[in-house]
Amino acid sequence: MRKMILLFGILLLILPWIAYAQVQPIVNIGHSTGWINDITIDSGGQYTATCCKDQTIMIRDLKTGKLIKILSGAKGEIRTLIFHPNGKYVIAGSGENPPILVWDLESGELIRKFNPERNSAVALAMDPDGKYLAAGGYIWEFETGAIIQKLDMKVGTVWSLAFDKTGKSIIAGGYGINVFSVNTGKLIRNFFERKFAKIISIDHQNETLIATVSESGIYQMDLKTGDQLHFIPDDSETAYSPNKNIVVYGRYPIIYDLSLKKELCKIDYETIGHMAIDPEGDILVSTDDGAFCLKDGSQLYSSPNCNKETNSMVYDSRQNVLVCASNIKDWNGYRRVEVLDLDSGLLKNAIHFNEVGSLQSLMIGANVLPDGKRVVSVFDKGKITLWNLENGEPIITSYLREENAYMNGSSMTSDGNCLFMYGDWWLASWKIGQDNQLSLISRVNIEETYWKTADLTSSGNFVVTGNRQNHKKYDEVVTLWKFPSLKKSKTLKVNAQGWDPHPLDLEVDEKETYIIAACEDYKIRVWDFKSKKLIVTLSSNIDGLVTSVTIDPQARYFAAGGKEDGNIRILSLPYGDLIRTLEGPADKIKNMVFVNNGEILLASGELHPDITVWRVNDGKHLATLYWFADASVTMTPEGYFAGTGNYRDYVHFVKGMKVYQNQELYDHYDRPDLMGDVLAGKDMPYMWAPDVE
Predict the structure, then answer these.
(1) What is the DSSP letter of 260?
(2) Highest averaged pLDDT of the listed ranges 207-211, 271-275, 621-625
(3) Are 612 and 620 in contact (CB under 8 A)?
(4) 288-294-300-301 Cα dihedral, nearest 10 degrees
């Protein structure tokens, strides 16, 4: 009987893992920031892979654009990608160390690393049989990692690589197109000498080469003789389908048949990014606009929302809401204020607007006023706008002095009557009138001082600034100012020893007990707020540069983030003993805020703007918040989710490498009734997951 009870208990422990292994709900997000560096399609024409500055690889279903896996583990920007010919692996190249990484596609695990002496891999290639990998002037045996050849590279940086159909020659594009012998590593022949050239594709059947040559055009060449077969006077981004002899090129892409030597049709989208064509020659995928049918140029699906930046997060405990200022970094100047209701775990409201033209500016901060009906936002060019939160309409706009004042941050007093702004040389206080008027109270301008970080105390009586001084005042790192008059009250000094000690981030706790500053000399300093005495200088428990700090409302501990590993350290106050490490995304943490009396921590990254939620006492990851232009999704690690707007359009289900759109799964995992409890730190009840078969 005891054995039966023990077996039943073990089953209760492992059954949730069995259930969750069957299907995984996933949010169809895009790369969060920066120009996408590369896109490629597997040899079977099932999947696409893209890479970006955000250090991740996204694997998608080619036919639908649905996200299947996010591959992580790279320590720097990924520049190029290829699939292994057998379709089981994804190989990435970067300028970091180690520069070549291999992931198992089914498991998503990082399984192998290659490290050439030059520590650079901006081009990769595999032979048709998948035995050899080439990068950075080296050729490896893929399975063993043994170097079999070192190419006689005397042609500058190589930006593209390809094997011929026999695997006996390898072609490098960069400063010309150069053909090397795999057996000897010696240069056999070259084309386009002294011109920058990039290999687009090699047609193994016809032994032809498609390449773009800078300031010239697109060439189709005979690979053996080097004879020019065709020329198109356009050197923009290009994609090629060898089996159908179709090339796509141009800012507004043209689909061109090389056999017929005529244009077939155009694509009505400004597709500037990288492009690739599936092996069947039916689908063109672009890093900017999604997928298109090559037969008629029609769009099959669009790329997910991407390139977003969360500049600030402010917690309003009176209304239990989180207020975020976000920017979509594109030419349209899309800006957004997002208000998250922590009672429900869902997006409560959002104000979005566009700024167009050369004077567009970024929103750097936002606060909801105590009446809950108005929000004030601050832009980096010194603009302040008061908005009606209910209808999203602007009430009034004012400027610090004139446009281009360039502010770095803002804070608001708890009563909502005064606003503080700061920039490189500016400090300013504003009155927010009940009649919706904005009026300047005081302004300080000191051109020899740079203010990159500042905090308004909870009482609203002081502003604390982190100073970056000239060398005459190198040791004056923190200054206190009376608010709203902005009269200097006290300057805190440190003993600078070689490294610049200026604060990258600082904060005063709600009880006004401590001042904490994360400094550029790899130290965190803690002062007593009342006496202004330095209590401790921390370095041993940090072990690296910290760029973001925030303090628990009860002044028991603080969070330190911004390190390269993306993790957050929870440290005791005032002496900085390490309490816990929260495993964050592979990204430097940019914004952090404690809620629920310090029991819950929310954070977003420098490259990953989506918000991650942790329970502080045990470090449990509770949820991730994803916000799109027309929807929001809150999802737990177990896969339960809820949202607003068209949120189900962004959620699908994955089992292995297969995507499902199953109504039963949606009904099971879509649980808005749970999200408020999740964000409050409560444990979720276990619910059996339905099978998709």
Answers:
(1) T
(2) 621-625
(3) no
(4) -10
Six-digit token string for 468: 């970056």
- Which residues, other chains included, contact 527 with Cβ-Cβ below 8 Å and sequence gap of 6+? 478, 492, 514, 515, 516, 517, 533, 534, 535
How far apart are the C-alpha atoms of 130 and 289, rounded to whole Å?
31
Contact 100, 139 (CB under 8 A): no
- Helix H, strand E, coil C: the string for 416-432 is CCEEEEEECCEEEEEEE
* H-helix or E-strand spanning residue 577: none
Strands (E), 28-129: 38-41, 47-51, 57-61, 67-71, 78-83, 89-94, 100-104, 110-114, 124-126
Q: Is 106 left (phi over 0), alpha (psi -120 to 50) or beta?
A: alpha
Sign of the torsion formed by the C-alpha atoms of 279, 281, 282 and 284: positive
Per residue in 611-649, pLDDT (tens digit) is 999 999 999 999 999 988 789 999 999 999 999 999 999
Alpha helix positions (H), 26-112: none
For the stretch 560-609, pLDDT in tens is 998 777 789 999 999 999 999 998 766 788 999 999 999 999 999 877 77
pLDDT of residue 470: 64
Specify the pLDDT at position 360: 64
Pair 562, 590: CB distance under 8 Å: yes
Annotate 293-336 with DSSP letters as a single string.
ETTT--EEEPPPP--EEEEEEEEETTTTEEEEEEEE-STT-EEE
Residue 400: closest CA among 413, 419, 373, 375 = 419
Rounded to the nearest 10°, the torsion over CA 604, 607, 610, 611 is: -10
Q: Which amino acid is at 350?
A: A
At residue 419, the 3 state secondary structure works out as strand
**Half-sphere exposure at residue 661, Cβ-oriented, CA atoms within 13 angstroms:** 10
The rounded distance, in Å, linking the Cα atoms of 409 and 470 is 21
DSSP 531-544: T--EEEEE-TTT-S
With tokens 């996200």, the residue in question is 67
Q: Provide the 3-class DSSP secondary structure of residue 9.
A: helix
Tell me the HSE value of 555 on the side-chain side, using a 13 A CA sphere: 16
Q: What is the distance between the alpha carbons of residues 429 and 444, in angstroms, rounded to a whole number?
A: 9
Q: CA–CA separation, 170 vs 162, rounded Å?
A: 6
- Rounded to the nearest 10 degrees, how much is the dihedral formed by the CA atoms of 636, 640, 643, 648? 130
Q: Tokens for 462?
A: 């002081």
Task: Tell me the whole-structure pTM to 2 decimals.
Answer: 0.88
Question: What is the C-alpha separation between 388 and 379, in angstroms, rounded?
Answer: 17
Which residue is associated with the tokens 């970006």? Answer: 52
Phi, psi torsion values for 5, nearest 5 degrees: -65, -40
**What is the CB neighbour count within 10 angstroms for residue 193?**
11
